Amino acid sequence: MGIDEYGGGQEPRPDVLVVTTNDVPGHRVVEVLGEVFGLTVRSRHVGSQIGAGLKSMVGGELRGLTKTLVETRNQAMERLVEQARVRGANAVLMFRFDVTEAAGVGTEVCAYGTAVVLARE
C-alpha cells in the first residue's frame, strides 16, 4: 500500500499512517507485524534547568522544557515510523507515548504501537 491509500485533500499523505485507535474505518488489517517502538533519551541543558527553577518560583509555562519535550517526542515518533516502514507496515495502530525520568539526568520518551498492513475494504 502506498501513500495514495489514505485521505483526501491537498496535503501530502503519510506512507505509514499512525493512529491511537484499534482500527481504521474503511480498512481491514491484512497482517499484524508486531510491536514497534521509537526510543530516545534527552538530557536537560544546565541553562534550561536553572531557568526552569527560577520560572517555577513565579509560575507559568516552562517554554524551553516544553520545546525540548516536543522535539524529543517527534524524534521518538520518527523512529517508530521508520521501524514500521522497515518491517513493511503501512500503519501503526494503538499508538502511545511513554515518558519517564531517565536515571535523574534526562527524559526517556518511548513511542510505541502495533505495526500492521492495512487494505481498503
Automatic annotation (TrEMBL):
It holds the Pfam family YbjQ_1. InterPro entries: UPF0145_dom_sf, UPF0145_YbjQ-like. It comes from the Bacteria. HAMAP family: UPF0145. Belongs to the UPF0145 family. This is UPF0145 protein PO587_31020. The lineage of its organism: Bacteria, Bacillati, Actinomycetota, Actinomycetes, Kitasatosporales.
